[in-house]
Structure formats: structure tokens, C-alpha cells
Amino acid sequence: MLSRACLQGVRRGVHVFKRFNSTLVVVEHNNEKLTPITLHAITAATKLGGEVSCLVAGSQCAKVAEEVSKVAGVKKVLLADSDAFKGFLPEALTPLVLATQSQFKFTHILAGATALGKSLAPRVAAKLDVSAISDIIGIQSPDTFVRTIYAGNAIQTLKSNDSVKVITVRGTAFDAADADSGSAAQEEAPAATPSATSEFVSQELSKSDRPDLTSAKSVISGGRGMKNGENFKMLYDLADKMGAAVGASRAAVDAGFVPNDMQVGQTGKIVAPDLYIAVGISGAIQHLAGMKDSKIIVAINKDPEAPIFQVADYGLVADLFKVVPEMSALVDKK
């Protein structure tokens, strides 16, 4: 039986353990402002205990570092501002993250479960000879995590004994950190030599007045039932009237109806808007994994047996080519 003094010592030991946890969050941005996923990743980082540092790497991105320094829960911001990080290539960022880890010895390295995060984390983990833990949706302790598997159809709890935990975080599972109540210190990130295996040449970004798909409060997505890309104009028109973003199922993307940056699903973008309208989408598990956390789900499909109706709050068995124009007309009246 432990004495009271021993118990107090154990408690102090646990307290010390938590205090010495430290987490590095890799910041996503466009050199002008933060990408929303970063605020969710910072919230996840604060749940691990200890200090939270953020790494801002880019070209002429000092204003992003300033923005991050104001986020609640952030203790320190490390800035790597160089043309070497144009395009945010994982091949260029990996040596930087490793140099930062070598200097500061973080216990956890976090990134959003985005295209960048999922490209960067495995590279960093491999170099550190640890496992990358992907797409976590919960944190039970500094070494125990919850994530979805089998296209979101099952939940797994896992414990990592690695000295450094390299993790990607599903943004929809964590609230966004307060962006205006922090006062973190800023300093230069450690020097690193980017890999010469890849070079950023240029990029062409599609422009739209619609909200970003991953942060929109309302999303309208189309599936194979749209029949062709031209018919997506119905969804664009309705979305513009509602102030919504437009997404698509993998089937619609694979059929060439829309570009792949509109794909919602396990292998696309993960969304959790207040309102999600699925139009002509059957509801494959891969798609459900990307939108099942939406607050209200509305399904429109002429097949009453479509799996999408099993997760929908409201379902309409009808011809989408009649219903969507009617919805658009009703929005006009209001």
C-alpha cells in the first residue's frame, strides 16, 4: 500500500511528464493567411499538454507568422521565410521539419490531414524511424489516439510507444482555436537544405467567389446521378444563391464531370458543414467518410434504397433534375 507521500510523488511525476510534452504544428497557409485546418490542429496540439510551437514555412510569409502568434495556445512561432519553400513541396519541407526537430526535440509533430499533411508526415516519420499516425479524430492521452479506419466505417484506438509521435489531424474532429487571444514569441526556424529532387515551377489556381469547400457552412455535392459536367451548373446556380460551396463524389470526379479538387470523401476533402446537400449521390462508404460529421444532411436521389438515406436527416426520393430547379426558384422567392 502506497503512503500519502509516495502518492504525492507519483502525482508530481505525472505533472512533470505532462509539463515536458512539447508539440510542433506545421502551419498550412497561402503566404497571405492561415488555412483553417491549422486552427483545428492547434486545438488538437493543446490537448497533448505542454508547450505548442508552430512552424511557418513559405515565401514572403511573415504576415502569416504574425497571424499565428495571435492564436490561443501557441507559445512560440518559428518562421522559415525563403523562396526555397515556394509551392510548399513536401520534399522541401521535410528537411526543415527534421532540422527543427533536431534542435527542439518535440515529443509530437502535428499536421492537418490534408494533401500536404499526408504527404509530409510519412516522410518525416520515415526519417525519424517512427510510425506516422494518420487522420486522428480524438486524443485520450499523449500516446493514445483515436482514428477512423475502413473508410470511416470503424473506429480504432491505438497507443504509440515511439519517442516522437508524428500525427495528421482530421480538422472536423476538433474545434478551431481562438485566433485573436494569443501572444506567442517569434523566432527564426533552424536552417535546412531542401532536397534537390523536386523543384517548384508554377501553379495555376482556380478562382471562385464561392466559399472554400473545407470551411463552408453549406455544401452542395453532386454525384454520378448528375449524368455529365454541364448539369453541375444547376448546383452552381443554387450554391451561389445560398452562399454555399460545391463538392462532388469520387464517381463524379472519376467520370470527368468536375475536377478532383471538388472531391469529398476519404480520398478527397473532409467536410463538416452545418448543411450538406447530397444530390444524385448513392452514398458509398468512401464518400460518407468525408461528410458524415455534417450537422444536417439532406439527400436527393431517385433510388429509395440508396445508402445515403441511412445517414441523411432529410431524404427526398425524387428526380434531381426537377427538384434542384424547384429549390433554386424557392430560394429566389425568399
List how many beta strands DSSP finds: 14
- Helix/strand order: HEHEHEHEHEEEEEEHEHEHEEH
Helix content estimate: 25-40%
Total domains:
2
Largest sheet: 9 strands, mixed
> If classified by CATH, what would the architecture of the largest domain be?
3-Layer(aba) Sandwich
Low-confidence stretches: 9-19
CA-CA gap between termini? 71 Å
Residue-averaged pLDDT, rounded? 90
In short, what is this structure?
With 334 residues, the chain is α/β, with parallel strands linked by helices.
Annotate the secondary structure layout.
Blueprint: H1 4-19, E1 22-26, H2 37-46, E2 51-58, H3 62-68, E3 76-81, H4 90-104, E4 108-112, H5 115-128, E5 132-141, E6 144-149, E7 154-159, E8 165-169, E9 185-188, E10 218-222, H6 232-242, E11 245-248, H7 250-254, E12 275-279, H8 285-291, E13 296-300, E14 314-316, H9 320-333
Parallel strand pairs: 1-2, 1-4, 2-3, 3-9, 4-8, 5-8, 10-11, 10-12, 12-13, 13-14
Antiparallel strand pairs: 5-6, 6-7
Helix pairs in contact: 4-5, 6-9
